[in-house]
Amino acid sequence: MNKEEIIKNFNQNENGLTSHGIFGLPFGEEESKVVLVPVPWEATVSYHGGTAEGPKAILDASQQIDLYDNLYQNGWQEGIVMQDIPTSIFYNNQHTKEKVAKYIDKYVEGEIDKELQDDINKDCEEINKYVRETSLKLINEGKIVGIVGGDHSVPFGYMQALSEKYDDFGILHIDAHADLRDAYEGLTYSHASIFFNALKIKNVTKLVQIGVRDFCDEEYNLIQKEKDRISLFTDYDIKKFVFEGGTLKKKYKEIIKCLPKNVYISFDIDGLMPYLSPNTGTPVIGGFSIEEIVFLFEELLSSGRRVIGFDLCEVAPGKDYKGERNEWDGNVGARVLYKLCLTALKSQKN
Question: pTM value?
Answer without folding.
Answer: 0.96
